[in-house]
Amino acid sequence: MTGTNGHQASDPLKEIETRLFINGEYVESSNGKAFGLLSPKTHAVVAKVFEASEEDVDRAVASAKAAQPAWAALTVEERSSCFKKLAALVREHNDELARLEALSMGKPVSTFIDGPAFSWLFDYYSESGYDVQGTSSLNMPGFVNLTFRQPYGVVGVIIPWNVPLLFFAKKAAPALAVGNTVVLKSSEKAPLAASITNPTRVYLLTFKQSARIGHFIKEAGFPPGVINIVTGFGNVSGSVLSHHMDVRALSFTGSTRTGRLIQQASSKSNLKPVFLELGGKSPAIVFEDADLEAAAQATQYSVQTNSGQTCMATSRVYVQDTIAEKFIALFKEKFGPVKVGDPTLKETNHGPQADKVQYENVLKYLEIGKKDGKLIMGGNPDSRENGYFVAPTIFTDTPEDSVIMREEVFGPVVNINIFKTEEEVMAKANNTEYGLYAAVFTKNIDRAMRFAKGLEAGTVGVNCTSPTTGKDTPFGGYKGSGLGREGLHHSLDHFLETKSSLDLADTVHTSVPSVEWPLDQNKDHIITFPRRSIDLQIDTTNTQQQTQRRDSKTTDDSPGSEDAVQNDSEADTEEIADLHEQLGCLMQDSLGEYRYVGAYSEIAFNSAVCTMKDAPSPEVEDSKIIPPPKENFPPQKPERPKLLYEAASPTHPYLPPREYCDYYVARFFEEVHCIYWLYPIEQFHARLDDTYVTGGGMATSSWLCSLYAIFALGAASNENSQNSPLNDFISPETRLVSDAKTSEGYLALAKALVPAVHDEADIDSIRALAILSVALLTFRFRITSYLYMGTAMQIAFSLGFQHDKSPTNQSPVTKQINRRIWWTLYIMDQEIASRCGSPCVSDERSLRIQTPLPSEQVLNPGTNTPLGCLSVSTSLNRLKREIIQTIYPERSSDSRTISFSKVTSYVSSLQRWQAEMPSHLKWGVPVAPTHRRSIGILHLNYWNAMMLLSQPFLLYLVIKGSTLNHPKRTWFEKLSKICLDAARNAVVVIKTMSTDQSISSLITFDCVCTLKVIMILALGLAKSESQDLRRDIGACVSMLENMEQVGFCRSVVQELPTRLAQLGIKSESNDTDVKVDFAQQATLSNLWPEFDP
Q: Which residues act catalytically here (predicted)?
């Protein structure tokens, strides 16, 4: 029977809620899939339950992650009220819950203890928040050391089907009590009680009006996202939850096989701690001095309860030979008479097995038992009922190596064997890979203690057995029965991280260790510069008094420490602002136009380095014009393209042969898209296939523009007939028909579509203009690239990307795509603007950005981009923007004075960024070959930022160092050393990328960064002679020459010898012995007289 709103139901229920509970609301699964839940009593469909997809689990985790900070910030009392209300609601509707469990997995209502246990546990944990305490220590002189107990964040909970409400409370309540949020996966065999308990009130016949559907969680006051419930099969929802990078701890009860898979998932994802309560094959040992009546009653109940479907059932009973016959008779007498029948009736005390799979599994073990042992009771399906009923079964004299003695049956089946001595039975009881529960029945206290110590199990009952456990003692398994322990305060420990805080109580300084880079035998070692070696104190208070106090205490073991700054008045400098006034110049481009180049552009910096040996011309002195490149590219003003027969024909756009297209696209994704993410790769290839199927006639202008820009980059290598990657990729047959277009041709096609791209002004327009900007920059159309990038940002503004605005019907995946594109644009905007030294469009001093970073669980960035790369790249990009705004001020309100303490704080911020980088992104850590380029570029960006911060000080020191007074010169020397160290570290990264073949000419950054390194090393040589610097310059020149000679890289290689010759550096091809002939520094200081402060 189908209920309203799509809910499925079957009598006796009027309506059963079967949807997923995510972020405080019921939702259907994203793919609409549902599975039928059959009654184990009647085999009829009880309900159609929605099955969670991967996307649903991702949304549940994202909701929990978003809700966790606010939930953890609540007081214990505020959280407590929710717990107590939920406990009361469950207690009130206990009968409803009992009937749901009877319907879904066959548990008799007469044996239902789950509801009271649930309420008791939530009541207990409602007041346990104050039990969480850290520690303090004064054992280290001068320190107050503390430990904090803090929640993990999002906790995954996977509960079994045999006692779902009890396990929900045992796991979720302590996790929630200490500030975690929960994503719970209920079993596909028993989802109904979990559904009612977690979010809603289910309709029974007693609830006639649909308006009375309540939400227990909402009624209790739990905020949305704190508890999320998904139902489905383990290979989908369970697997996603176990592998999820945002799930920080996971608790599971179930089979040992599944527990192993969960542990593997943890090791393959984020090494989340997992707490496992797994299967059992529990022994009970009955000695001749035991109370046989009580022992028989306890052991039979352990196997019979819940139809034997409990992990700690004493399914192996060992009886001493002298009382075996009497005990077995008592056991049969108590085990046999059960009331089999409808589990919803109170007189029934023995229900069916949970489903067909479980039923058939038990029958399989019965056949093994009949073959290996002696059947003395049961052994067959119960013929009195049509459901999955199995009669209580007893085997005796079963060999210890029989499968039924070694594996968990999970049914009302017991094996009773006989023993003679303590040693014999101890060995037999422990001869198993399980160790969840064990029991011993004896009146001899010494024997009881021997067995309590000797039995290999997490819990040992003396004169009692399962399901009896101690409320205030931990419960869990030895060996294959699990990891960790549960039980009141022990469960709290599962869901808390321990943090140590070492607080130095008698100094104003904070000691920060240097960042150590791991060594690789096959790679160069990264040079480190500990903070102590550069003697830079961080001004965290911005007060002159503390700055003076720190400066007066400064010491340094490095060369020049005797020249430490003593004069407090020299805490800032105006010289760099004067330098920047000279560097912010006009440059004549290939069209004959004079373009302004900002001070922080590497063009201005490189030109200043290359011309420092030349006497400045009157033109330079008067107009501050940077000379144009020696090799002009393009050589002349481009003509207006004639494209009427191509681009203006919407039904016949030009497309290259498919193999060429696939080569161009593969290179784009491997070398460009791994840095600048704009498309989900599956979506891109699906659209590309459609384009070739339809001949491109249905493609939008923006889509075609994107393709042409990609083809322009890829076709650059096609122009070299000896290109090895192209020859390897494309078959000899295809090479017989070459691509009719060159890079210039594809650029012309793309640019011809730009007006139509502007008119479309959608997300594809953003992509097209961004990719075209990259291509134009690569082919040295710097100004056009800057303009198109600005337009892409403006279209993004119009779509509300900066405020995370989206239509209400937008899918979660599309929302994450838009977020990722926004932050990619944010990075590209700054990088392209930096080539011109021009302002960014996305300037956060005047723009409020509200868009969060994308969830990589909802949207995986793909095989070429490692997880977390966008997040750390964005934080570094923001640091670079702050550095530019401080060191290279453009606005009139910005001060000309640069504080040394501010500069050193940026050094510390960059070092902290490097230290806090996720471990899988750190340098020297083994990575997937597809991630090498992304990670290499990330580290080049870091060293580039360090050079950007410190390079003005090195340049000024070389050019006008003699004019600096002694205290200022000390600061300039230290910052110059940072700059040179950063350049040499960048050399290591570039060498590794060159060796790994992950360096590329398809974007300008690789070449630009290498060129900047050469310029900085040249300044280092001007400052002092060094064979190491000579070798590094030679290595960089050689790597540039070995790169694919495309676009900007080709022009750099052509022009670089001329520029180096201006500096007196001569480098012959394939000769890394760079000959350097610099004038003396005293002469250099007079080369640029206009730099007088």
A: 277
